[in-house]
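Dear Dr. V.,

Thank you for agreeing to look over these. As mentioned in my earlier message, I'm a first-year student in the group and I'm still getting used to reading structure tokens, so any feedback on how I've presented them would be very welcome. I ran two proteins. I've put each sequence directly above its structure. The first is here:
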Amino acid sequence: MDDKQKKRPAVVNGDGGIDGVLATAIRNGEDLCPIVRHAFEVGKPEVLVNQLRSIVKKKEVEIEELCKVHYEEFILAVDELRGVLLDADELKNALSGENSQLQDVASSLLSKLEELLAMYSINKNVAEAIQMLKFCGQVLNLCSKCNTYIAEGNFHPLVKTLRVIERDYMQKISIRVLQRAIEKRIPAIRSYIEKKACSDFNDWLVHIRQSAKEIGQLAIGQTASARQRDAELRTQQREAEEQGRLGAGDCAYALNVEQMEEGSVIKFDLLPVYRAHHIYTCLGIQDRFQKYYFQNRLLQLNLDLEISSSQPFLESHQGFFSQIAGYFIVEDGVLRTAGRLLSHSQLETIWDTAMAKMTSLLEEQFSGLEIASHFLLIKDYVTLLGATLKRYGYQVAPLLDVLDNFRDRYHELLINEFRKQISDVLENDTYEQMVIRKEYEYNMNVLSFNLQTSDIMPAFPYIAPFSSSVPHVCRIVRSFIEDSVNYLSYSSHVNLYDVVKRYLDKFLNDVLNEALLKIIHNGTLGVSPAMQITANIAVLEHACEHFLRQAAQLCGIPVRLVERPHGGLTARALLRATQNAAYIELSNLVSSKIDEFMDLVNNINWTAEDPPQMGNEYINVVCIYLDTLISTAQLIFPLDALHNIASGALEHISDSIVTAFLCENVKRFNLNAVMCIDNDLKALETFAEDKFRSTGLNNAEKECNLRDCLTEARQLVNLLLSNQPENFMNPVIREKSYGALDYKKVASICEKFKDSPDRLFGSLSSRNSKQSARKKSMDALKRRLRDFS
């Protein structure tokens, strides 16, 4: 062994100090993985194996040496162990004997213990049986209550009792027969409850559909009442503002509390819905009920949205829209009070369905309407429906958009209806001044349209400056404004007044103005009707301000906004143009009548042998006619129009005289004919001067006297009667005395002028020097005019 120990160090130390490190690591219980990994990395695993074997041999040697050191102690320990075994055998024998004695003594006690345990088991079983009977009694009591609830139809406590049985008792029932019986009956009871609740809910569905129309009518009626109160309040406010604008005194404002009360709450029975929903929720099948409710209410809505083909929509629209209103009022109540039975998204889906159907139906029905009042009836109820449902949070803009889309169609029908009324009124008018005999007639026909010329109440009978068609036309225009505002109000217009004003302008332009032009140009008017129509147009043009104020009041805007600059109607300009056309037509009629009376070519002896002693007879007739014309015009026309009519007639007479001299049928004329026309002109000038003063035109600061309208004829006659007619060629004299005459006309007329009477041997008659001088001057004028031409 000593030889072996001498050889080992060489082996262990064959690789330097690795053997010592490995031994230390093994002794300390360290992980050898790094050492093994290192050995393989350096490529020397055999060295590591040899080192491990060396360590193993070293430990074996240590064990052998330890055993040699403790060998004697081990022998002693084995001897002591043998002694202990002997003692243990003796103790075992003693214990066996004691055990035999103990069993003999305790055998009787064990039998008594078994009897006691049996008694304890019986006692336990009896207690459990009693407890079980009590538990089953409670279960049976709950079952009895369930039967009672079923008999009474009291499903809410019935469902709660079933839930208690299932939750607290069912799993604890030890009697299988009873448990199976209850398990079998509970689903049947649940099914019965569900059917019964569904039956009650179905009855409610039938009832609520029958009641929906009444609910909708009541709600729409409340909206209509509120709208009426608002209209009355706005009317009072407008009256107060008007009084304040006119300075009528202090305006008293009062708040009528009785009219400020909120509309009564619409009540309807939702208890069956709550009950059914709660029962289904307790049964754990609330989703099924929610789906059932949604589907059935949607089916009802689809039925409600169908219109009857046997009844016109105009007659059935109120019931139709009332049914829809009632339906959605009920749905709003269900949404707000029935928990999660109906969701916002579901209600929006239903509402979108109804809105699409209603808008489509309205468009279809409106497209077929041909009477404006039918439009208005349906529109009023649609806006009431929209206002009612808007209070419940529904979006009604698409309904109002349909009304806006058909507003042109409505006004087209409305204009066509009123066009016939306007035409009938104008055609049936006698165009005589309206005689008003009573104060109420004055208020109704004059004051109500602001047609008065003075704020002082006139004496009766009062002769108005217009004919009976004017107040009739004003009433028609007022009706048009009211109907237009009625259709456009409560819609989506931001500026209602501008829209109404646009349609009013269109009505006045396309209907009233066109009808007036038709009457003016139909060729059947006399002078008096034409004169009255001209006066009527002036009154109607003035009434446009009243029409605008009325539209503003109905639209609820301050009147001061209407009175702003550039805020008037374009129809006023067209009416003024139409009035000018009427003036022209009147002037043409007057001119034609005057031509009828004058007929100068035939009424004047252009080659008279003797000087006239007085004017022609026709001039008296013309003066009488002009006097009648001006007197009649003075009653109905303002001074400006009166001056235009009178001056137009006199200018036409002047033109007629000049034209007569130029007429081809007048080949020649002499001094006597000119003197005759001079007498006629003097009579006309006297008449014009008298009328200018008697009618008050002289006080109207008119630059042109009526006599001045005869200037051209007067200057022509003065030229022909002049002793030195060749002065016409003198620019200064011509500008002063003959400025209205035209060269060419004077040249043509002078060529026809023969300053000697047509009689036998007239050329041989003696002439005084004055006549010779005039003739020479006239001949000189003729030559100079020929040269000038």
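The second protein is here, in the same arrangement:
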Amino acid sequence: MFLEFSPLEEHYGVDEAMIPYFGRHGCKQHIKVPMTQVVAIAGEPVYLPCDIATQDEDDAVLLVLWYREDLGTPIYSVDAREKDFGIAERWSDESVFASRAYFLPERRPAELGVDRVRSTDQGIYRCRVDFKQAQTRNSRVNLTVIVPPNKMVITDDKGDMKQAIVGPYIEGDSFTLKCDVSGGRPRPWVKWYRDEVEMDTPVTVLSGGAVRGVLRVGPLTRTDVRAAFTCRASNHLRSHPIETTLTLDMNFPPLTVHILGSNQPLSARRRYDLLCQSAGSRPPASITWWKNGHRINNAKETLSTDGNTTTSTVSLQLTKSDAGAKLACRASNPQMPSVAPLEDDWILDIQYVPETVVRLGTNLDPRNIREGTDVYFDCIIRAHPYVYKVEWRHNGKTLIHNVGQGVIISNQSLVLQGVGRKTAGNYTCVGFNAEGDGESKPFSLDVLYAPTCRSSQQRVHGVAKQERAHISCHVDANPPEVSNSRMLLQFRWTFNNTANSNEVSDTYISRAGTTSTVTYTPHTEMDYGTLLCWAHNRIGKQRVPCVYHIIAAGRPDQVHNCSVVNASLTSFGIRCSEGFNGGMPQSFLLEVREILTQELVANVSSAVPRFTAIGLIPGRTYAAAVLAYNAKGRGDPYPLRASTLRPPEKHHVHDKSLDLPRTAFQMSGAMSAAVGVGGVIMVVLVLFLIGVKQKCAKRKPRSGPPPSSQPGSPDKLREKDDSESDDRNPDIIPSDTDHLQLDYYRKQQVSTISPPPGSRMPRGSVAGVRGSIPAYCPLRTAPPQHQTMIDSSLSQTQQGIPPPAGFGSGSCTLPRGSSAGLTAMAAGDRCIPLQHLRTLPRPMATPTPLPRHPPRDTPL
């Protein structure tokens, strides 16, 4: 069977070859298979044809296999035996084409595309097509891969490599250029061109497969100056040739050469354009720049209008390593070999910004600097000119020599005495000279210290019974985290109340970084107390624990220290200090009322006790009240009076335009008498009216307004609010408002351990806090009288713990209906402060016996 094929491109060629074929009856026979010649350039895509067209419409392609003759197995396949040919499974041998091959069945004929063809892809390929009905079809492709040359080196008679300029030569000289080209398949041809005119180029093959093209030029004339000699090599018409062009340089000897502005100091890292001028050369001199014997090639030359002076400019960006280097400008003309090139040199003086390095003391370990140790640094400086000042910085801020604070600066050394956590950070030293200031890279000082309680965290938590609370303990520690699966920072919690102290189980404790959280749920009054949190790391244990008071949530305390600020004609501001929040988040409210009518004219709420009342009447005094409130209710109002400013008085401005010239005016005797009589009549009339008004006032008795119409004072309003609050919450016992004015006491620490009876503890003593302040009672709600008796009997009989001692003095509250409590209060005995116990259990009318069970000290 013969297959006809017409090439689609010029690089296709068709040939025929005999391949063995086994017929259906197993008989071996040879058939002629067309051979297509395909030429490709390395690195470009190539397409190998394969005819898969069918003559019968009912026929279809089942399988397409590509072979390379030096390999016995397929290298690419399209399997459509179980699928449609459009979605047939395609496979490519990873060792041959891999992902570079793809089949294009839509083309006529179909083609196997190969991207980025390689030199190793050259060979004979066979395409086998199996049809559903027709006989298997084979076709062959001879792929020839052209590899262009890849390297060209041009040398002169001396063997020097030339890249752009050849020479300079003098008139009458001859020279030879050798162009060596390596790489490429097939072997490339090499040709020389002068000004794009082909020259006679003898070609020789070197060992290793390189090809050399030789160009002999000479004797030279003036017309040869700046002639362009190009060496060009290629091995196929379709491949892009490689080439190198050289320019011939010819010069006459110069007379003078000078570097302009030499012998001046230069700054490092700055770019300078240096000039060198040469005169007297014909043609213009060739000026070259040299630094320590190395030529600088980026020079630019300009020629004067008369052609006698050549100026060369070189752009240099010098560094400190160029200090002391010799910069030379040479003007030469090889036309006169007996005359040495003229040269002007310059010994470079490079000045640069100080380079500084911070170095820790040699006997100090930067990974084990603990709090309280002494640390010293040295500043290593390299500068020209030398520094006139050295400065030390901590986190970008300049350090000042202060022996009292443990900062000692001496020359280029820094000593830190007794470092602490605030001392840690980045330290740099800065050197100053005429070039500027150079700052070193930061040296990070890491100070290790034992845990301490972090400030600005909530210390008092108001929690209701059966309410789950999450108490977080935040500490500062270094190191704080986990290393090598070992906890470097660990926490311990204890709970204290008036009876005992218990360790908190680890099952209720969680940890995240430097924060530990305990889950706490109070069930009884004994579950209110103090939680203490300790942490420790490998440096040591926390000395002073973090203290968190668990109290029964209640109404907030009264604000204090209120004052009026920023008063204007229609507004004024009020600033207060907040009191205890009752253990819950609190907000604040300002009410402004008319003093006489008690009409509400302003109502302002805020998250902080800072208010501004606007839209008021100028020159009027108002009754203001500031109170705090939370989810449990309102606190006691703080009354005060505030006034707006009075409007300025109106002053009449004298109008000079009304001034009239004075004239002589004389009052006659009749006119004077009339004026006197009129004045006397007016005085008598006024006296008469005053007497009549006083007489009427004596006859009519003064009666006050009915009680319902009397305007209430702020104090009465506050009493009314308190009575209404008591009606709403009958378990609240009112207290004297004088005690509510002692708001600053609420800012103090709260003790949770009651002193034993008869002991004299310092008032307000709390866990190392000393001071003469009123003592606070335990932060727990007092149980009803019968419950107290039962709990006391149980604790005395079962655990041997004495009943709680008396509470500290102060404004106190007791359960209603407790005669014992009233008697104790009357006797001035100790009791629970009102500002901490807002809500107390209701007394039971008839005490019922409760089941005896051991008291729960802590819900944990």
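From my reading of the second output: The first helix runs from residue 669 to 699. The CA atoms of residues 513 and 858 lie 26 Å apart. Does that match how you would interpret it?

Kind regards,
E.
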